């Protein structure tokens, strides 16, 4: 019996700088991904968040699962800077994660610098 195409969750098992962003996605590690991404110590994951979506604690569950390896979380909120909801900020703080919202372009640039410095950084980047 023939099997159809198997769709798996987007995941790159490693850390990589972002080479480019825009047109609704990101380029890294000689690959491209359409949509938003989570850049975590365990790898790079597709993230089901679009510009303007509510930033709920549940959307950051994977980040919280890796809290022991993250000191700073950069949140690229799209074209415009959006503050993080108080409950999300408090939950991240309780997990010893410093969160910093900024527009996605600034978050990409900051992430690349911090990654090059081998800092314990993660990023939640909304595609623009």
UniProtKB/TrEMBL annotation:
Highest taxon above the source species: Bacteria
CDD domains, A to Z: Mth938-like
InterPro entries found in the cross-reference section: MTH938-like_sf, NDUFAF3/AAMDC
Annotated Gene3D superfamilies: MTH938-like (3.40.1230.10)
Signal peptide per UniProt: none
Protein name per UniProt: NADH dehydrogenase domain-containing protein
Organism lineage string: Bacteria, Pseudomonadati, Pseudomonadota, Alphaproteobacteria, Hyphomicrobiales
């Amino acid at each position: 019996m023939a099997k159809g195409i198997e769709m798996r969750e987007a995941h790159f098992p490693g850390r990589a700088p972002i080479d480019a962003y825009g047109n609704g996605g990101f380029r890294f590690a000689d690959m491209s991904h359409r949509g938003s991404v989570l850049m975590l110590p365990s790898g790079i994951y597709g993230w089901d968040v679009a510009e303007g979506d509510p930033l709920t604690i549940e959307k950051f569950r994977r980040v919280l699962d890796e809290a022991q390896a993250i000191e700073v979380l950069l949140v690229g909120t799209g074209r415009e800077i959006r503050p993080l909801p108080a409950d999300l900020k408090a939950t991240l703080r309780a997990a010893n994660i410093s969160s910093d919202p900024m527009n996605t372009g600034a978050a990409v640039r900051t992430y690349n610098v911090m990654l090059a410095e081998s800092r314990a950084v993660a990023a939640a980047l909304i595609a623009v």
